[in-house]
Amino acid sequence: MKKVEGEAKNIRMLLSNARFYIDYYQRDYKWQTKHVNELLNDLTEKFLGSYDPNHDRSEIKDYENYFLGSIILCEKKKNKYIIDGQQRLTTLTLLLIYLRHRISSETQRSKLLGLIYSDVFGKESFNVNVDERNPFIKALLMGEDLDTNGKTESIKNIISRYKDIEKLFLDEIDGDAIIFFSDWLIENVYLVDITAHTDEDAYIIFETMNDRGLSLNPLEMLKGYILTNVTNEEKRNDATDIWKKITEKVKNLGKDEDADAIKAWLRSQYADSIRERKRGAVPQDFDKIGTEFHRWLRDNHQKLGLNRSDNFYDFINKDLVFYANNFIKIRNAAEKLTLGLECIFYNAIFAFTLQYPLLLAPLKKTDDEETISAKLKLVSSYIDIVIARRIWNFRSIAYSNMQYAMFLIMKEIRAKDVSELSSLLYKRLSAENDNFKSNKNFRLHQQNKFYVHQLLARITEYIEISSGLPSRFKEYIAEGKNRYEIEHIWADHPERHSDEFNHPADFAEYRNRIGGLLLLPKSFNGSYGDLPYENKLEHYYGQNLLAKSLNPKCYDHAPGFLRFVNESGLEFKPHREFKKKDLDERQDLYIEIAERIWNPERLKMII
User: Do the Cβ atoms of 321 and 247 come closer than 8 Å?
Assistant: First the structure.
């Protein structure tokens, strides 16, 4: 083996004037939402553990560092190729692009740009340089809206993970805090750069670090610990077969899903404590299960009733099988709209991974399928209402913001029967101050576009289903060239409304209120979006029912809709013109529809 160099570098040192290449056979970018979610949670929690709004920026140098692992590079012909680490480096690039869009300081934006994009010897390139990706990374950098239709899986993943960062990044890290965070990220987050000078040496290092069995993963160590304690050989063999069959079933859901299932199960049934969000706080049950569940279980085996060989056998034969199978049921519902479990799908759209331990929490091994389905429907409906209310009231649904509250609910609903669960969750929702009427001016802004899109999709779906039409929800949220976009009923021409607004800023605020928005195909916006309302009204009649309801003809030729309006008492009416008072009326209508969709009373109907 030739010379191998290793050096710990922070992100600034690693990416400044760098250009990394990826061999053609390694070019897939595969990270999914959960990987981005975990990275953002780890980074933001570590940062917030040190951050104080009263600090001077110079104090960031004393903040805790974060180690992001090692990357393996091969230097050949003066170019550096990534052998291991491209998923993290690509995701870091996406995060840096996002931060650059969020920060107003041109000095800081310039600093971040130098870590994304470089000019080496007069040749411009991105620091993770892959020809097929570069146009799309550049488009993200320029703030352009990208269509994933017909793109490779890697490009689709890159675009989707950037959207995940937009959704999942903590709202509370804003203003000065986001500048502090960007400083901390590039100065206090480290990777170990291991550079070899031949492909053979690089892959020997890679294999040594990953394939020699010197470090079993937590799942393998948990399996070894449990099976070792099953002393009866026949039962141990049986438990081994059961473990293999059930974990293989979970693995079919995707990478790392077997470990995710174990974490969700253990957290749902046994986590009694969680780390406080303050400086110096130490990890507790919930946190340890997320990072080292094998060690946590070994240290807490008595708490779990694992005292004898039969206990360990039953833990696999009964507990693991029950909770893993229900985890599979939940994850399938998260991927595909399932009758009765629709809210699991809705919650998953928001990357709300906290729903998995929460959904498992009330389940008992003695529950029949009807009881399990009722419990899952209750908990997922509760989460659906909480998420919608928080979004409407401009409150974050990010993991770190929701973790503690969801942990407390998880403990409270553990092993509850259906009646108790319904009553408990209903009381919680009734006691909350947030509802849709508490923010009568809910509007679209720079950071909530994705959320508003989802709410409009639900509102449109509700009206259509209630009018006897089939659900088109998946159509409304799908990506691709025929995707739906948020349509402003008022085009961006404040001069057309100068009789009602003295200043363009007042017009812009009103224009963005949800009552002035629709969800329409991208092609519609391109063709008609800039027209005055009177010219668009005729075309609205050919669109979904929420748009149609603006047109007088909808009240002559839509019997299902008219029945729904009559029975519901909702104040739908045609609008031949769309002035300020018309938008106010639509705003009130949308608020009332939201109150109907996300009404806590629906929990009582599940019993």
Answer: no
Rounded to an integer, what distance in angstroms lies between the CA atom of residue 390 and that of residue 396?
Answer: 7
Take residue 396 and report the two structure tokens written for it. Answer: 């974050």
Angstrom distance (rounded) from CA 132 to CA 155: 8
Residue 120 has what pLDDT?
62
DSSP labels, 6-44 = EEEEEHHHHHTT--EE--GGG------HHHHHHHHHHHH
**Cβ–Cβ contacts within 10 Å for residue 165, how many?**
18
**Whole-number Å distance between alpha carbons of 41 and 48:** 10
Tokens representing 424 are 């408990």
The token duo for 470 is 């089939």
Stronger pLDDT, 510 or 212, i.e. the higher one:
510
Cα(474)–Cα(109) distance, integer angstroms: 37
Token readout for 215 is 């470090």
């009765």: which residue's tokens? 340
Q: Residues 421, 603: contact at Cβ < 8 Å? A: no
pLDDT at 201: 65
User: Distance between CA atoms of 378 and 421, rounded to whole angstroms?
Assistant: 8
Q: Are 596 and 462 in contact (CB under 8 A)?
A: yes
CA distance 9 to 191: 6
| Residue in the structure block whose two tokens are 């939201």 | 594
Q: Each residue of 367-385: pLDDT tens digit? A: 999 999 999 999 999 999 9
Residue matched to tokens 């679209």: 444
509 or 209: which carries more pLDDT confidence?
509
> Is residue 311 packed enough to be buried (19+ CB in 10 Å), middle (13-18) or exposed (0-12)?
middle
Residue 404 neighbours by CB under 8 Å, 6+ apart: 274, 277
DSSP state of 490: S
Per-residue pLDDT of 290-326, as tens digits, reads 989 999 999 999 999 999 999 999 999 999 999 999 9
Question: Taking the model in full, what pTM does it have?
Answer: 0.85
Are the CB atoms for 87 and 35 separated by under 8 Å?
yes
Give residue for tokens 């809210």.
343
Q: How many CB atoms lie within 10 A of CB 400?
A: 17
Task: Spell 255-294 as b/e; 16+ CB within 10 A means b.
Answer: ebbbbbbbbbbbbbbbbeebbeeeeeeeebbbbbbbebbb
Only one residue has tokens 């001077």, namely: 56
- Please say whether the beta carbons of 84 and 207 come within 8 A: no
Tell me what the mean pLDDT of segment 583-607 comes to.
95
pLDDT at 72: 83
Look at residues 266, 320, 314, 316 and name the one whose alpha carbon lies nearest to residue 293.
266
Residue pair 80/19 in contact (Cβ under 8 Å)? The answer is yes
Place of tokens 């929460």: 358
pLDDT at 210 exceeding the cut of 60: no
What whole-number distance in Å separates Cα of residue 180 and Cα of residue 168? 18
516 in Cβ contact with 506 (< 8 Å): no
Each domain of the chain, given as residue ranges in start order, spans: 5-210, 218-431, 449-603
